[in-house]
């Protein structure tokens, strides 16, 4: 089926990314927007746009009838859901199919199957993909207590309908077990409406390594190698890179084969990610499968030269995937930093307001994906990620240095950002050696204040910026009058690092 018009059911940088891919392919796009997003970049870029109304996600980007309606009204014959919002919603994929609109992603059945963690794990175990030793309640003649003896403490209780770390509990000894199970069950029931649990051996310091896969609708599947995503905070990724220093060619081949096996087993189509945990002894275990395009897809694009979003659209239109596994080459090293409007010095509190000044680092092999620009309102309704800064280098050291340069030349004023925090991570000796795991931030940045690492001139600049903004608040109209006298209007490129 030829895709002739794509409705992009998302906002921000990913909507912009998808619209760009469509434009390069000559496919017109339809943007949708909530009341607070009317002047966003994605709306400006798309050929057409339709309003969704109220900015709350439930009334806008998560509202299935409104989005299906918009697709019908605009004559779009395909919908790209991006990530988040409706991207892993099987009901939405089904609603699209029922309306004769192509959902750019896997089928509703596959989304649903992967959303159920117990079912997904069982499927993978049967397909020979390594899974973490555990107990799902199907094991006949075994009680939970016996299972824990077999698995060994500590064990981890997970909600089957959870995912992304929601509803997990570590139990270190038999004492607290039954109480922990009871409370996990109650929480799962109230959070997910499903009280099914699974128990697993708890891996104490795993790395999170995921494989990007592409699968067409005719059974051909390839992987585009791994991404190392261990640097995260409360299940929110902060820095991703590829390749992972924890891998060698042999392990990469094994995990890549397992990822392809996982995709083939469930009849996967389109782009997807198979998540694994890798323990200190380099054992790997299937964790879950993300049935969508991911935030961090760009680092894979940088190291393989493959445009994942274009392939999603070609695959959805029924084209065969012409990539061959042994011709896909991982070259160089890419790192992504997620720039958030939040204050790492104040418990990562989200920061809202108007983005006043933006100056971006540019140069060879620097990619900046964003949906905002100078003057944008950062609202409290959506994810506080402002942008993704992605760099490519010959090797890890080269890429790290480029990232450090790019971060130190990145100016975004008006809202507080995590840029100083990102710089501190890149500078950390354990990051430099690649000695990272999923507890990295918790271990080294438990209480962190930008004052500890920032040179005094940055603090002075921040203070000036504060003063300037307080003047704006005190005196309406002061902002415009002041604009040309502001130090930012004349400073030119200003190096934090000097
Ligand atoms: C685990 C684990 C340790 N042992 N399972 C977090 C997300 C959810 N999908 C599964 N997660 C974990 N499962 C066992 N048996 C540690 C985590 C985990 C984690 C995994 C991937 C990326 C970041 C993480 C951060 C904390 C905990």
What does this structure look like?
With 498 residues, this protein is of the alpha+beta class. The protein folds into 3 domains: 6-104, Rossmann fold (3-Layer(aba) Sandwich), CATH 3.40.50; 133-201, Dna Ligase, domain 1 (2-Layer Sandwich), CATH 3.30.1490.20; 209-444, 2-Layer Sandwich (D-amino Acid Aminotransferase, Chain A, domain 1), CATH 3.30.470.20. It is built from 19 helices and 23 strands. Strand 16 and strand 17 form a beta hairpin. It is globular. The structure holds ligand MV4. Ligand MV4 is lined by residues 132, 156, 163-165, 200-203, 206, 208, 232, 235, 277, 287-288, 438.
Keyword list:
about 25% strand, disordered C terminus, Rossmann fold, binds ligand MV4, Dna Ligase, domain 1, D-amino Acid Aminotransferase, Chain A, domain 1, alpha+beta
């Amino acid at each position: 089926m030829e895709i002739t018009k794509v409705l992009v059911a998302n906002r921000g940088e990913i909507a912009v990314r998808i619209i760009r891919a469509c434009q390069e392919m000559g496919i017109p796009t339809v943007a949708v927007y909530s009341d607070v997003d009317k002047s966003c970049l994605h709306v400006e870029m798309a050929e057409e746009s339709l309003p969704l109304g109220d900015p709350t996600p439930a009334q806008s980007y998560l509202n299935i009838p409104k989005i299906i309606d918009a697709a019908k009204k605009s004559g779009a014959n395909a919908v790209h859901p991006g990530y988040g919002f409706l991207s892993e919603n099987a009901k939405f994929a089904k609603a699209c199919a029922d309306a004769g609109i192509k959902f750019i992603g896997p089928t509703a059945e596959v989304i649903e199957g992967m959303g159920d963690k117990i079912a997904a794990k069982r499927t993978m175990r049967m397909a020979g993909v390594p899974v973490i030793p555990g107990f799902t309640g199907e094991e006949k003649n075994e009680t939970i207590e016996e299972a824990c003896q077999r698995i060994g403490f500590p064990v981890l209780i997970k909600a089957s309908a959870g995912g992304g770390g929601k509803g997990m509990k570590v139990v270190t000894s038999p004492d607290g077990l039954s109480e922990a199970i009871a409370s996990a069950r109650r929480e799962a029931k109230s959070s997910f409406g499903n009280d099914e649990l699974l128990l697993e051996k708890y891996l104490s310091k795993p790395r999170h390594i995921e494989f990007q896969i592409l699968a067409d609708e005719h059974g051909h599947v390839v992987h585009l190698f791994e991404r190392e995503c261990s640097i995260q905070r409360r299940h929110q990724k902060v820095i991703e890179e590829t390749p992972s220093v924890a891998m060698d060619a042999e392990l990469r081949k094994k995990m890549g084969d397992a990822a392809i096996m996982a995709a083939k087993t469930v009849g996967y189509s389109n782009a997807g990610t198979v998540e694994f945990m890798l323990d200190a002894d380099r054992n790997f275990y299937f964790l879950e499968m993300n049935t969508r395009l991911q935030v961090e897809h760009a680092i894979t694009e940088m190291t393989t030269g493959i445009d994942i979003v274009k392939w999603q659209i070609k695959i959805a239109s029924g084209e065969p995937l012409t990539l061959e596994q042994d011709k896909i080459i991982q070259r160089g090293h890419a790192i992504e930093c997620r720039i958030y409007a939040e204050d790492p010095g104040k418990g990562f509190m989200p920061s809202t307001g108007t983005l006043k000044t933006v100056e971006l680092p540019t140069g060879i092999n620097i990619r900046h994906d964003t949906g905002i620009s100078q003057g944008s309102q950062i609202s409290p309704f959506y994810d506080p990620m402002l942008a993704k800064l992605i760099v490519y280098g010959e090797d890890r050291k080269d890429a790290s240095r480029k990232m450090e340069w790019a971060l130190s030349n990145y100016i975004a004023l008006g809202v507080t950002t995590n840029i100083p925090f990102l710089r501190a991570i890149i500078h950390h000796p354990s990051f430099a050696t690649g000695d990272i795991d999923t507890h990295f931030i918790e271990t080294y940045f438990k209480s962190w204040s930008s004052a500890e690492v920032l040179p005094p001139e940055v603090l002075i600049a921040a203070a000036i910026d504060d003063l300037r903004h307080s003047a704006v608040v005190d005196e309406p109209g002061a902002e415009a009058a002041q604009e040309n006298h502001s130090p930012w209007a004349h400073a030119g490129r200003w190096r934090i690092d000097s």
